[in-house]
Amino acid sequence: xxxxxxxxxxxxxxxxxxxxxxxxxxxxxxxxxxxxxxxxxxxxxxxxxxxxxxxxxxxxx
Length: 61
Hints:
Elements: H1 3-12, E1 36-38, E2 41-43
Antiparallel strand pairs: 1-2
């Protein structure tokens, strides 16, 4: 690990800030949507042909 790597790790883990991470995912289709309020929770509507399939949700902001 270089000094530059150590510096980047130190600045990513500041108290009160959530560190960003990189995900690499292989899939067939992607949709970008905004989560809407639904009672005490959040909701995203997806296409009906996705029913029964496995999906992964990643918060990007």
